[in-house]
Amino acid sequence: MGKNIKVIFGILIILVLVNAVASVYFERFDLTQQQRYTLSQPSKDLIKEVKDPIIVDVFLKGDFPSEFKRLQSETRYLLEEFSAYNSEIKFNFINPLEEGVDAQIVANNFYKAGMMPETLNMNQNGKVSESLLFPWAVAYYDDKSVQINLLKKKIGDSNEQIVNTSVENLEYAFADAFSKLIYGKDKKIAIMRGNGELPEKNIVDFVGKLKEYYYIAPFTLDSVTSQPQRTLKQLTEYDLILEAKPTQKYSEEEKLVLDQYLMQGGKMMWLVENTAIEKDSLFTNPDNATLAFPRDLNLNDFFFKYGIRINTSLVKDVISAPIILAQGTGNETQFNPFPWNFSPLAVSNNSHPIIKNTEAVKFDFANSIDTLKNGVKKTILLHSSPTTRLEATPLMVNLEMINQKPDLESYSAGKQNLGVLLEGEFTSVYKNRILPFEVNNYAETSKETKMLVISDGDVIKNEFNREGPVALGYDRFTGTTYGNKEFLMNAINYLLDDTGLLAIRAKNIKLAFLDTKKVAQERTSWQLFNMLLPLIVLGIFAFGFYTVRKKKYIKH
pLDDT exceeding 70 applies to what percent of the chain? Predict the structure, then answer.
């Protein structure tokens, strides 16, 4: 008896000591092969100095398919990791569709707030039904708030693929939101004006997103004729320039200013096209037709020197976004999608952080881009599918083309480059040439810098409805959200060397899911197995127990 008391007493002492040590030294161990529950160093660096509470409200709660329950649980695990590293990170899970709430009203409220609900098709036991999902969170810090999209999906992905991609993106999504809440802006972007760029109303959605991270200001090259040196000096005060679909020729003076800006280490994003055609013309012209013709921006030598050539031919792609046409009149009007091969859905084969886990980017009347050897590193970020066809311009384009079934044999041009990232040391366009004006400290070779060229200005263009601008990349008629905004935002982050967050995107996570088809097929068998196996085991145990007792207690 005394010996047992000593053992119990010893165990209690050990437990007290373990708890005392644990209260001083805290450690969590991630035993998963992919380190799913370990925060990346950029995430830790981001939140380690936070002294005031960051409150996160997560709306991923309710009745939805089991795959998305995984997304819910993985979101909780990740937030627990953030909270364990810094206790000022606090979170709540909220069900937007509590009993008695009108689901349509809730969905409309989320939509108006810029958080698109998702309608899911649930397939359980062979029965298909719909479920409403709100894959969003909102983080609050001081008097600021940020919306966080928890769902990442690509066209054609299964629910399992969507959830896996979403889980891979979770840490980036939360770290990005925390970064916007915690830190101020320190870099400046010039939105170029004066060469027929897209009107402000057509880039307002993306510029609004940029303002969350950077200082934004319009900049014009109009004064270059009278004060070129001063214009160049003012331009170099910006970290990046954004050229959104210029339509007017550049003078040699303007090109020299842009060239020397690049030589001094400035970053550039060009959304430029060498063909003049607007989709709106198909609807405003009585014949529903318009002419596509080459556009001369006087930039051919500019880009050629840097290592690319933007062609004047149009890319037609079997893998493309539909065109939406109205049918009927008055209250009976219906908006229906039709195949439209002039709107390629661009993707990438590489895992570059700009494009990783990003939905296909929608183009309209894109040109192909050739890359040239010149010592500058070139990364193809966006390309068409292999089933493409190049249409030489001038070309008459009309809506009757929706009735023409593609001849796949003629769509044999292969993948066409639509977005190219250039990095390294660039050579000046004006090397060994007479300069349009005298430049102080003219540079023939640039510092290490970056440039992104996209062969369609409409990639950044947002649409409008009665309530104002529509979110960039969102098609209100089909409910599809393309990857335009996210791709462009990632590109800006990368060009400006905000690579800490982008590094988090490289984290690969693979979740194991049940094969739902196999489960449905073998459902009855497994139900019987789960019912009968315990009974059989219990019967064997009872028989053995009875046999032992019989041998032990029955006298012979």
Answer: 84
Torsional class of 430: left (φ above 0), alpha (ψ -120 to 50), beta (otherwise): alpha
One DSSP character per residue, 519-532 reads HHHTHHHHHHHHHH
Q: Name which of 56, 227, 17, 254 is nearest 140 in CA terms.
A: 56
Element (H, E) at 326: strand 323-327
Per-residue three-class SS string for 81-131:
HHHHHCCCEEEEECCCCCCCCCHHHHHHHHHHCCCCCEEEEEEECCEEEEE
CB atoms within 10 A of CB 90: 14
- Quote the pLDDT of residue 314: 96
Residue 518 has pLDDT above 60, yes or no: no
Average pLDDT of the residues in 213-230: 92
**Residue among 361, 324, 322, 365 at smallest CA distance from 345:** 361
Give, in order, the Cα–Cα distances in Å from 97 to each of 104, 106, 107, 252, 432: 10, 7, 9, 60, 68
Structural contact between residues 204 and 463, judged by C-beta atoms closer than 8 angstroms: no
- CB contact at 8 A, 343 and 363: yes
Q: Is 427 in contact with 444 (CB distance < 8 Å)?
A: yes
Cα distances (angstroms) measured from residue 68 to each of 61, 108, 144? 10, 22, 29
For 78, the token pair is 């990740």
Q: Residue 519: its pLDDT value, please? A: 47
pLDDT digits (tens, 9 = 90+) for 410-463: 999 999 999 999 999 999 999 999 999 989 889 999 999 999 999 999 999 998
- Closest CA relative to residue 474, chosen from 116, 191, 160: 116
Q: For residue 228, is the peptide bond before it cis, meaning its omega torsion is within 30 degrees of 0?
A: no
